[in-house]
Write a structure and sequence with these properties.
By secondary structure, the protein is of the alpha+beta class. It is built from five helices and five strands. The protein has a five-stranded antiparallel sheet with strand order 2-1-4-3-5.
Amino acid sequence: MTRITLDQANRIIAAGFAKGSELGLKPLSIAVLDAGGHLLAFQRQDGASTLRPQIACAKAGGALGLGVSSRKIGDMAADRPTFVAALGPIAPHGVLPAAGGVIVVDDAGLAIGAVGITGDTSDNDEACALAGITAAGLNAQA
């Protein structure tokens, strides 16, 4: 299994910010976690609010912990709100059921990390995560 390198994490962040600028988004914060859920890299743009690091990590960490994107966790929360609400206290970074947390996979489809982005709408956050993953030459979980 491969892993996300610091260089790739920094490329994900730079490309995520570039996509946000291209779309004219609010200030973004981007976290990249390794496969074990450990923070590999984080940056927040000037003007990003103070809770953004925790939100970005909760999107990425929740996705890794459940094996699905944070968008799918949001769908899950609609059907099983008590279950999803109970996950936050037991997850190292928490769980945030909103789009913007995307699992990064290797060529065999195994998780090698995750990206969490916050700052604009959840759909825009997710678009920036996907752009960053692609720009780093990596693959997002389908």
